[in-house]
Amino acid sequence: MYQANGFYAPRSGDVLFVMSPGWLEAYSYPVVKGTTHGASWAYDTHVPLLFWGWHVRHGESAEEVKIVDIAPTVARYLHIQEPSGTSGTPLLEVLK
Fold first, then answer.
1. Of 2, 56, 81, 84, which residue is 20 to 30 A from 12 by alpha carbon distance?
2. 7 backbone dihedrals φ, ψ, rounded to 5°
3. Which of these, 70, 52, 78, lies nearest to 89 by C-alpha position?
């Protein structure tokens, strides 16, 4: 079975409804303003990732990063054990 970032094929729908351009379905009241980063368009799912602090080297990368890679990267940087549910891999360019 394929599961990635909240998509679970056996339970996910086959149809995506777009009420109108720029419309976000609200799950709470009052309506939450902003975005969810869960839309199906690339402009909404690509967000910057920044590491900053003591001994963090300057640089940039255009490599694709998955959110599950953040916890193992921070754990490796701090020289601590990764969380037990970790499924990502450390971002080596941050650790060099």
1. 84
2. -100, 120
3. 70
